[in-house]
Amino acid sequence: MNYQLIKKTTLLLAVCLLAFSQAYAQDVPKPLPMKPGMTEFWEPEIDVVTPGEQTDNAFISAPSDAIVLFDGKNLSEWEHADGSDAKWTVADGAFTVNKGTGDIKTKKEFEDFQLHLEFRIPEDITGKSQARGNSGIFLQERYEVQVLDNYNNRTYANGQVGSIYKQSRPLKNPMRAPGSWNVYDIIYAAPRFKEDGSLFSRATVTVILNGVVVQNHTTILGNTMYIGLPDYEAHGPASIRLQDHGDPSEPISFRNIWIREM
Amino acid sequence: MNYQLIKKTTLLLAVCLLAFSQAYAQDVPKPLPMKPGMTEFWEPEIDVVTPGEQTDNAFISAPSDAIVLFDGKNLSEWEHADGSDAKWTVADGAFTVNKGTGDIKTKKEFEDFQLHLEFRIPEDITGKSQARGNSGIFLQERYEVQVLDNYNNRTYANGQVGSIYKQSRPLKNPMRAPGSWNVYDIIYAAPRFKEDGSLFSRATVTVILNGVVVQNHTTILGNTMYIGLPDYEAHGPASIRLQDHGDPSEPISFRNIWIREM
Amino acid sequence: MNYQLIKKTTLLLAVCLLAFSQAYAQDVPKPLPMKPGMTEFWEPEIDVVTPGEQTDNAFISAPSDAIVLFDGKNLSEWEHADGSDAKWTVADGAFTVNKGTGDIKTKKEFEDFQLHLEFRIPEDITGKSQARGNSGIFLQERYEVQVLDNYNNRTYANGQVGSIYKQSRPLKNPMRAPGSWNVYDIIYAAPRFKEDGSLFSRATVTVILNGVVVQNHTTILGNTMYIGLPDYEAHGPASIRLQDHGDPSEPISFRNIWIREM
Amino acid sequence: MNYQLIKKTTLLLAVCLLAFSQAYAQDVPKPLPMKPGMTEFWEPEIDVVTPGEQTDNAFISAPSDAIVLFDGKNLSEWEHADGSDAKWTVADGAFTVNKGTGDIKTKKEFEDFQLHLEFRIPEDITGKSQARGNSGIFLQERYEVQVLDNYNNRTYANGQVGSIYKQSRPLKNPMRAPGSWNVYDIIYAAPRFKEDGSLFSRATVTVILNGVVVQNHTTILGNTMYIGLPDYEAHGPASIRLQDHGDPSEPISFRNIWIREM
Where is the 3-keto-alpha-glucoside-1,2-lyase/3-keto-2-hydroxy-glucal hydratase domain (chains A, B, C, D) (predicted)? Predict the structure, then answer.
């Protein structure tokens, strides 16, 4: 038996085994596909809370042990989600989604942290439900704290501002009117995984929006999904990612972003 | 304006308001309906474990502080799920599902507990996947620990024996062969609700099947659902309910059931 | 046997039983008494963090769903810990400890909440370690979040500002200098007890001091004790109590106190 | 300045700095020393429960995925705590403490696991309180599940059989009489530490003694201490250690030990 014959026989065997294993695998049903609207719950409606007054230009600056992710001047701490340069625009001490240029993320990666971030919906915002000032803060690139204009704009409760997108509805809706700055303070503990990649402990998050607790040590159930059910995949430290949602809404701005590793 | 007129006017107004509120309510989308197969996950397959040997007639009896729910003699601690008499059959120190007569539940209600229960799939069981020895233990009438013959019978992982049905797949599959007794030891903490009915803390459960931990302080996400997503509704102490699944499988038997309030 | 004789005999028997039960009880050792210094841990020292800048008169006001516990005008929401009138002094939009008059507490009682409170150490504070600006916020009258001047004043780590007193040291020390206002934001979940008075779940608390997380979903182990070990006793909703520590320190002031039930 | 002079000067400087730093360190108070009796709580007494009957020679054997740590034949899975050979005696399918030879531990190290272990107090045991059949199972060499004869032998509740030693009293006392085998089933999750050595999550443990839950997902507060308060120090996977308590009690035996990594 010469070498070529062995090679051919081996190849044939491999093809047969593959075909067999696929046939076998096809024997196992896959979960039926879902639609977005299956995980959108409008009821009960979230109560509106008017947040406390705060002098607009008197926002708190970063504590001395924080990493300043945006100090109003440039995007030196950020890059495009694909690793290229970030293309969002910087002006007047804020940066703004540059529609269609894609998400941006921090160059540094984080595990457990306290994150401070402010965002502003443009005063002339239009649209409704999810198509009104939609963006998002993806903790560790996977777990979305929703950014959306829900000032007099109702959407599904588990997808409005302050929600862990499609996982946990906010306790209240303390959104400020378009044109005002909203303040997010987020305390996050990363999930932990075992050496074999299985889940040891879920991520948890506390979210304070404009001084009002909207998520209270919420357990995150896995990646926040537009379609289907959340699940975990093992990962290590990862970036903060901000979403370019790409819909026809007016551009959303961010300022005063800092993070403290915990 | 006389009384009759007031009454009629009020009624008319009420009807109008109701119509208006319904019209308004109809304005809010409802979640799209789901199908059972959307929450059935076959992969990855659960590893089989051969449980330890145990002399069949040497099962552990109840500790002195336990409430004996079945001592082999009668159904005095049980009733039909609708409150009428339980119609399952008692023989040879066990009771057996009487197909089509409906679920049975304990007359007593429980909150936090340790539950011991043994079950046997008949030796001549037929069928496959979910249609093979299907029953269930509903903790507090809501949260199902699956009973199914998964000895050489694959089904979706999150619906096989040892699973919290469609919520949490078992860590392992230590099922004994049909005709043998399987032993469940379940440590359960009930959910707690606030006075306004909102959830304070989720239920947790540890499940040991034939001496092998299959659920390790698992957080229960809400009612276990055949179709759709789990959610909580406020409740107090409730019964243990056993399922008459009603399919053409041979009848499943139970014995040696006791519970310790914790 | 007449009535007087029965009465005397009964009394004698009761006395004998009491003596016997005490003798019996004395047979069981009691834990040896502890001293305060046994639960005071100075090492490792807590890192100092300079908090962010905030315009002093631009503090955030109460959200619309908050109960305002002090709006700068009067002590109408407070009373002496013994239920009599609160005797602390109100001036310039703040109230101040009136040394020796005793603790004050809210008239309303609370379970789970978000609490905002600001405090100021007088600029001419003297003393050191615990004898420098000592007060405290007792959540549900039992669990003390420490108030102390730790600006350039070291004390045992588990007893400094931001600590759960003698239970959990703060993660950082973001204290402002005497004369400045410090801001506490506290998210608290009450312990839950079973019907028999045993503990179901421990209290948890997240504490943010001057914008810096100092307690991150910390589990409270029981009543905060000056001497000895913490333990739980069953209780329901209870007040927020502020401490008149009574040492020769200058008086501490409070302002802008509001609470949101959760 | 020659090399020898530099060397001497540097040495002198180093000594001075050390002396200075020690002097400085001495300036910080150390916690006052405690006595054992300060952490021994006899009240309330733990309720006795008579465990269920079990045929003595019908104990459950190891599941197929378990690591058998003792199969009745030899100490091949064990070594002396100092790494030398284990000197305990093997006879009649059990091994027995060889008083004065020291603790033994598993050669393998573990993180999260389910542990099964049986122990027997000799029938002619003497002594009382802690001096009666005292041994212990140290999970990860640090966290002691108490082994003690508490059949008609009272001791401090947080130090009796089923306790996490001096941390968590058992829920019940289901001890069998001397001469009988007692069965421990232990479900343990290791603590997790951050890269800087600080604690991320505490260890938890569920303990079932003779079929009765005695610890229900108990949070371990740190190393179990005879004197003083528990605290955590960062560590990785570690052995199961069994204690040679060294008191004049009769020797304790162990059998049927297996562990499943989780």
Answer: 66-260
